[in-house]
Amino acid sequence: MASIRVRDTTGKLFFDFRFQNTRCREQTALDDNPVNRRKLEGILKRIEAEITLGTFEYSRYFPGSSNAKKFGKKAASVRDDHETSLFKSFGELWFQEMQIQWRKSHSQTVAATLKNYIYPWFGEKEVGCIDKADILEFRSSLAKVTSRKGKGLSATRINHIMTPLRMILSEAANRFNFSSPDAGIKSLKVPRTDVEPFTLEEVRLIIESVRPDYRHYFLVRFFTGLRTSEVDGLQWRFVDFERRQILVRQALVRNELVYTKNDGSFRTIDMSEPVYQALLEQRRATGNFEFVFCNRSGSPLAHRNVTQRVWHPLLRHLGLRARRPYQTRHTAATLWMAAGESPEWIARQMGHTTTEMLFRVYSRYVPNLTRQDGSAFENLLQAQFNRG
């Protein structure tokens, strides 16, 4: 571990770090005090970063040192000798550089993935020496890991774990000038899963049967298509009763208000009459608080608590198939499509930038709701064959 230390005999500070498997100690003329320590710690961070990237020039920092002569030109770029840093060292630098682009929740997810899966396997390997066989072996090992529920990791989860590994190797390949070993390795095929929207009759049954204090919450979810994080993070300042609009500007993720999922999610939802009336009534209950749906202290609802204590018990009571509350969003899309709303309008309400996902995911449910698709062709056939 690199550090700034003080020599007992002189009281002067010196650098203590490792370079090319060699311990290096470089003396300074600075006295030991907080100002000088901060100054040298800043220099040491740059040195460590350059060592990790393979661009450290010993003589530039310590021109009069005997170590500068020892390492010579070879130290100017360890890449010339095809030497690269350890995977963990480079991974930590990559994480620091990328973290500014991510939500806090995503940073936590990536950090956990690196710590629990990737570093234990690749951490002590030289990043430039990792090959395709290493990656495939690692991916195979993930298939044998069991989750907390005792189940094996899904293909989706394995692909998510592989993503930061691919990104780190790709960035290292660019900086150290070698071919990324993950080229040609395709992501695992993920089985397609159907959405499971509720019928309009089931929606009516749920809203009429749910606890009164959650009736408005679920009505808004069913008829706006809001995501769980969006409805939980909805504040009164984003409800425009005059224009009858809900402004989706933020989401509640891990108890933190963050920017919407993507630019398309930053949107305006038109209130239907039931939603408008529900929010008017809800304002009487929580209008003095910041959040539209909150507990008695004004804190936003904990969605896991709502799911386990309200949602699943209600579905069991009504004899309905168990589904995640997120299916309320899918239900809104299918009901809008069944009603004949413009696909472009629906896409905007959902936060999709195009209509492609609507037709790919939801269109098959429309015939089940309207019983009209294909009827024109069927009438043509009946007219033709009934002539005789």
Describe the overall structure.
The protein is mostly helical and 388 residues long. It has 3 domains: 3-81, no CATH class; 87-176, Tyrosine recombinase, N-terminal domain (DNA polymerase, domain 1, Orthogonal Bundle), CATH 1.10.150.130; 200-370, hpI Integrase, Chain A (Orthogonal Bundle), CATH 1.10.443.10. It is built from 17 helices and 8 strands. It has helices at 34-53, 58-61, 66-71, 87-98, 104-122, 132-142, 155-176, 200-209, 212-224, 228-232, 273-286, 303-318, 327-338, 343-350, 356-362, 365-370, 375-385; strands spanning 3-6, 12-19, 22-31, 239-240, 245-248, 250-253, 256-259, 267-270. Strands 1-2-3 form a 3-stranded antiparallel sheet, covered by helices on one side. Strand 2 (12-19) and strand 3 (22-31) form a beta hairpin.
Structurally, the number of domains stands at 3
* Derived structural class: mainly alpha
CATH class of the largest domain: Mainly Alpha
Low-confidence stretches at least 5 residues in length (pLDDT < 50)? 73-82
Mean pLDDT, to the nearest integer, reads: 88
Give me the CATH architecture of the largest domain, please: Orthogonal Bundle
Q: Order of SSEs, N→C?
A: EEEHHHHHHHHHHEEEEEHHHHHHH
- The side-by-side strand order for the widest beta sheet comes to 1-2-3
Using the alpha-carbon principal axes, give the shape: elongated
The biggest sheet, with number of strands, parallel, antiparallel or mixed sense and barrel status, is: 3 strands, antiparallel
